[in-house]
Amino acid sequence: MLNECDNELERRGHRFVRYADDLMIFCKSKKAAQRTLDHILPHIEGKLFLRVNREKTKVSHINYVKYLGYSFYIYRGEGRLRIHSKSIKKLKDKIREVTGRM
């Protein structure tokens, strides 16, 4: 179903990444990102008849994004990724829950 969305984004010349139903679209400016969001949401909801979670959907700089448990940062002009701090905290909490304190 989302292949149609991929085709539309490719047709429009956007760079994006999608895993299952999670989608990130990369733009050069915040204004361009907002314009892309405003144009792609009606396509997803209107033509593909899918619901978009408005609480999770946002325009943000790559440094402030959590995607599939990872966060991203720019180092010397190159994009890199690391495990997001919330994912690490969740893992540590789970380990504390499963193991004893002794």
Describe it for me?
By secondary structure, the protein is an alpha+beta fold. The protein has three helices and five strands; from the N terminus they run αββαβββα. The strands form two sheets. The chain has a three-stranded antiparallel β-sheet with strand order 3-4-5. Strands 1-2 form a two-stranded antiparallel sheet. 0% of the residues are buried.
Topology:
Blueprint: H1 3-11, E1 15-19, E2 22-26, H2 30-47, E3 66-67, E4 70-75, E5 78-83, H3 85-98
Antiparallel strand pairs: 1-2, 3-4, 4-5
* Strands side by side in the biggest sheet: 3-4-5
Helix content: 40-55%
The structure class reads alpha+beta
Radius of gyration in whole Å, from Cα? 17 Å
SSE series: HEEHEEEH
Query: How many helix segments?
Result: 3
Secondary structure: number of strands: 5
Distance, first to last CA:
51 Å
Q: Strand fraction band?
A: 15-25%
Mean pLDDT across all residues, rounded? 90
Major sheet, described briefly? Answer: 3 strands, antiparallel
Notable traits:
three-stranded antiparallel β-sheet, alpha+beta, 102 residues, two-stranded antiparallel ribbon
